[in-house]
Design brief:
mainly alpha, two-stranded antiparallel ribbon, 2 strands, 43% helix, 6% strand
Length: 127
């Protein structure tokens, strides 16, 4: 009884496979249309992620910027990507607005210096 049940299931699967095979067009059955194409297929899609260069060189800005309290500077002008440069050649120009405003505010005025001198004289009793 159990063997008859398995025989019917096997026959049903075999008949279904034959029907599916004959329902496809003749070109697909002969695999002529599935041969590898020699021309490149266009790729259209989008990818997210981070792009990292194969080789790069770190360029450091002026060290004096930290002394005046400037931590971020915008790049005003930069050479085109892929340009080969030697040591000491122009690479980029930094935006000077933040640097000039910070250096002006940190530079003491003559009045400020005079008041500091007076304060120091009073604190040390020096005349």
């Amino acid at each position: 009884m159990a063997s008859r049940k398995y025989l019917l299931i096997f026959a049903g699967i075999l008949i279904a496979a034959i029907v599916i095979y004959w329902s496809f067009p003749k070109g697909i059955r002969n695999n002529k249309s599935l041969q590898k194409s020699k021309r490149a297929l266009p790729y259209r899609g989008s990818v997210t992620g981070e792009l990292v260069a194969k080789s790069s060189e770190k360029i450091f800005g002026p060290q004096c910027l930290r002394q005046i309290g400037v931590w971020q500077v915008k790049i005003q002008d930069i050479i085109p990507d892929g340009t080969v440069v030697d040591s000491g050649q122009y690479v980029a120009a930094l935006d000077r607005t933040e640097i000039s405003t910070r250096s002006r505010t940190r530079r003491p005025t003559p009045k400020k210096l005079e008041s500091q001198l007076t304060k120091t004289r009073l604190d040390t009793h020096w005349t």
